[in-house]
Specification:
alpha/beta, globular, about 30% helix, 6 helices, single chain, seven-stranded parallel sheet, 7 strands
Length: about 190
């Protein structure tokens, strides 16, 4: 049996207008709505947008908690983000959120978002909670962002639970067979 993975669009709001964003390959208003049956079959859920961290902290924490509570079959839950909304979340909000998720997939798109990662490392004890051994985080670095990553890693060492992955913009992005791009019935 294949492990079913659901990428769930929770918001169309985003701080970017990336010309090759995979969301541009879809009519987001016509994406299928996730069902309870699909969630009961899901192995992995990836909350995506837009930018999930543009949601009010309590909304995102509550959503993650409810998914975990109602669908205990879900083995992994990740949040995809560029990092642009991270500063909207207090230390307490981060601590509450990571109780429900298994990691972050972060793909900074500009200098501001790399600066956000730096600030989190310096001021919010980011490594203390994002270094939690049970988390599996990915830092996606697009071709035009390697120089920013090199500057970042001069000052900060990512903990072992961060995997750095090179990414390319793909004009013909295809979802793998066991992965499904769906949406919530109501978007933030």
């Amino acid at each position: 049996m294949t492990e079913e993975i659901y990428h769930i669009l929770i918001s169309k709001r985003c701080t970017h207008k990336c010309p090759l964003c995979c969301n541009r390959l879809y009519d987001l208003d016509k994406l299928p709505t996730i069902t309870g049956e699909q969630l009961r079959e899901a192995h992995t859920v990836c909350l995506t947008g837009g930018e999930p961290f543009l949601l009010e902290p309590w909304d995102l924490i509550h959503l993650c908690g409810k998914i975990r509570e109602q669908y205990p079959n879900i083995q992994k839950m990740y949040i995809y983000s560029s990092g642009s909304g991270f500063m909207n979340y207090s230390y307490d909000a981060w601590l509450r959120l990571i109780k429900h998720i298994d990691g972050l997939n972060v793909s900074p798109k500009n200098e501001y978002e790399w600066d956000v990662l730096r600030k989190l490392h310096l001021h919010w004890h980011w490594s203390e909670y994002m270094g939690d051994e049970r988390l599996s985080n990915r830092l996606y670095v697009f071709d035009d962002q390697w120089s920013q990553y090199e500057l970042f890693k001069q000052d900060f060492t990512l903990t072992e639970n961060w995997q750095v992955i090179g990414r390319k913009w793909d004009a013909e992005f295809k979802t793998p067979e066991n992965e499904h791009f769906v949406r919530l019935p109501i978007l933030w």
